[in-house]
Amino acid sequence: MFSDLLVLDATDAARLIRQKKLSPVEYVREIVEAIERSQPVINAFTVVTASQAIEQAKLAEGAAMAGAGLGPLHGVPFSIKDLVDTAGVETFYGSAVHKGHVPTRDATTVRRLKEAGGVFVGKTTTPEYGHKGLTDGPSFGITRNPWNLEYSPGGSSGGAGAHVAAGLGPLALGTDGAGSIRLPASASGIVGLKPTRGAVAHGYAPDVVSSISYSGPMTRSVADAALMLDVLAGPEPDDPWSLGGSLKAVSAGLTGNRIAGLKVGYIRLMANPDVDREVEAATEAALKTLGELGAEVEPVTDKIDWIEEDGRILMRTGMWTKSRNDLERWGNQLDPSYRDFMEDGRKVTMERLREAESARTRLYQAVQRLFGRYDVLASPSLVVPALKVNHHASRDQVLVNGKPQGFTRTGFSSYLYPFNLTGHPAISVPNGWNKEGLPIGLQLIGRWWHDRDLLRLAAMLEIARPWSQRRPPHWGGVR
Asked: Could you report the per-residue pLDDT of 245-296, keeping only the tens digit for each?
């Protein structure tokens, strides 16, 4: 077993560095060595910035020893998903199309993590343009789940999920266009928060006004997710949604270790006709715990159109618009499933696209009505715990309780994408393991700007149903 440094949460590491009890150089070197050791096994990174990270750690150590003012992440390593621009570091966006592309400036999220004192250790893998819920592609190969290498860690922030789950660093920045933070968080057994629309500036999205994509934290503990959110949150002129609101303080009734009177609505099914039995049992166990803590839990019986087809249209027309000019030159080098999704987008008429946009409004209003009765909504994070690495996103149906249940949006991630469309904050937290040892996740959804309520509730579950003591077989890159 490798050093206990890999076990440290960011919150503890930052505190020990401030107290001069932990060397940032020793800590970052341990993390970088674990990343490099893991690459042939897990393949979670496209670029490892080892030498730069060590140099940053030396500067951080000098500042700590000199008693300088330190940021909340001083000396703590973090990774960035390959969809997000990093100044001076090659960014592929998961695609061979962009080989050799080196951005000249950091995205706002990257800049804020650096300004908080964090040490950047590399770029994590993503499928081409983050288009699917598994992480593999022609440009970098397959990223594997540290709990079982035959399974995917999910996607599209799969490299981030695998690297945090495997003890290769405590903090990862993910992005979420249809569940891409929460999906790998659930499949990898970590915490993943999709914030309220605008809470974390996402000004580098192709369409910031009608965007369904978000940036957010992926961590091994709820405390680290809260710490990272505080660093990331705030307005940015390039993102109009970030200018219109701010995160709320924790609501009354969510303090201490009791949640008396909190109303939780349980949504058993969304666009999916069925849910894995072990996932359902784990979800019901977590809801029972919430009841024991004082919450009032009841099933949601409203008939809601979860607009699976309309949501798919909104996403895939975006893929076609973004990449149609690349087809002639790069067609054979693009991921086959990305080409399939683009082809779906190409066929959509203007009338059908406008209908999908209207359906998004109806979904938002339906969810808002639920929040007239409930403080929090709860569901499984995923329909099944994980998919095999050889699952083809556009051609293979997902088996649920032994029966085919459609492709990934209905058979795997149906609980996630609706809240990209509505803008509500949603978090996936670990919720046990199935008989094969694969993690199971629980999703909590909150009112707009009430992200901290979700984090507080998740922290209570973390105490009542602890998960962090259990580590995957491939912890620290062990083969």
From this structure: 899 998 877 877 678 899 999 999 999 999 999 999 999 999 999 999 999 9
Angle between helices 24-38 and 10-18 (to 10 degrees): 150
Q: What's the CA gap between 323 and 148, in Å, rounded?
A: 34
Cα–Cα distance, 410 to 359 (Å, whole number): 18
Q: Which residues contact 332 (CB under 8 A, 6 or more apart)?
A: none
Q: In the chain, what are the domains?
A: 9-477 (3.90.1300.10)
Residue type, 6: L
Please, what's the b/e burial string for 102-125 (b: 16 or more CB within 10 A of its CB; e: otherwise)?
ebeebbbbbebbbebbbbbbbbbb
Q: Please give the Cα distance from 142 to 145 (Å, whole number).
A: 10
Enter the tokens of residue 133.
């819920």
Active-site residues, by number, are: 81, 156, 180
| Residues pairing with 430 in the sheet | 441
- The Cα–Cα gap between 414 and 423 comes to 16
CA 108/CA 80 separation, integer angstroms: 12
Q: pTM to 2 decimals?
A: 0.97
- Whether residue 194 has pLDDT greater than 80: yes
Note the maximum CA span of the chain.
63
User: pLDDT by residue (tens digit) across 317-365?
Assistant: 999 998 888 887 888 889 999 999 999 999 999 999 999 999 999 999 9
pLDDT in tens, 410-433: 999 999 999 999 999 999 999 999
- Contact of 170 with 22, CB cutoff 8 Å: no
Rounded to whole angstroms, how far apart are CA atoms 153 and 125? 11
Average pLDDT, rounded, for the chain:
95
Q: How do 171-176 and 77-81 pair as beta strands?
A: parallel
Indicate the pairing of strand 77-81 with strand 136-137: unpaired
Neighbour tally for 469: CB within 10 Å: 6
- What sign for the dihedral angle of Cα 265, 172, 339, 422? positive
How many residues are recorded in the chain? 479
